[in-house]
Amino acid sequence: MHFTQLRARFFFILLASLKYWLIYIFSLLIFASKSQDKIYFLDGSNRTVKVLEVTPDQIKIKSGNNEEEDIWRGNVLCIEYKNGSVEKISSPKENVVYTPHDDEAEKKLKNEPEIPVHNQISVNTFALSISDISVFYERLTTKNKIGLGLMGAYNFSPRATFFNNRIWPLKDGKKNCDFGAFANIYIDDVFSEETRFYLGIMFKYNNLKYTAAISDSVKIGNVYAVTTKYTPKTGQQFATIFTCGTYTEFSKNFFISTIIGLGGFRMRGDYLQQFNQQAEKHKTTSSILLKAYFGINAGFNF
Description:
Layout: H1 3-34, E1 37-41, E2 46-54, E3 58-62, E4 68-72, E5 76-80, E6 86-88, H2 103-111, E7 118-124, H3 125-128, E8 132-141, E9 146-155, E10 174-187, E11 195-220, E12 223-249, E13 254-266, H4 269-278, E14 288-301
Antiparallel strand pairs: 1-2, 1-5, 2-3, 3-4, 5-6, 7-8, 7-14, 8-9, 9-10, 10-11, 11-12, 12-13, 13-14
């Protein structure tokens, strides 16, 4: 047989053997890939690895280069094992943007509450009708179940009105300003999904001014003359008021709430003496008097 023919025959046999070897290697690779586990992440990506252990916080894996690695399970949607079974690990959470291999995003995801804490500011529109500019600030915490806040008001009327019935009987009685602190507990599923009911308590300080009429008798000879001296005075009310009301959201940022409150405060000193002296129909022997509060607040969340 000619040498050229022998060489051609040899290469033909070599190529045929190589073909079978390639088929064998390709089959092994397919089998190896099928024998691996696959992890699907919440951001839509996936990895083919070998899952070694699943703990409440981490998933221990071995990657293709045989290096062990820990993955935080909060980023994992599910695991597809080599036997075909699927284990669900977690579900997507609202208001979270997932970025693969982003440590800051992962840290944010671990610490983010289910319902974000937010603040709200509102104005008592009912108080405007009695010349009060009343502003409320409230911070909602604990899944928006508890609200803590402050309020402040300034009265621009030159004279107290009937709604301030413990001030208006005084001579030149005028309400100056209010300051207060309050706490509310919100209750869901009482009226509707948009309207919530709450119970609360408010501690309120009110500053006022009036003119005190101080009478004095002077003896002139055998006659007593009565003189009256008018002196500007200031007074205070420190009230504790139990409140309740509703909170209705009309959009993500706009809301209207109502306030109904009833409590009491102590009237003392010159304030009590002048009140009884001026208020013929409203005299009182008790230093503790009832105090009510009403409000229709319109405001914004932020």
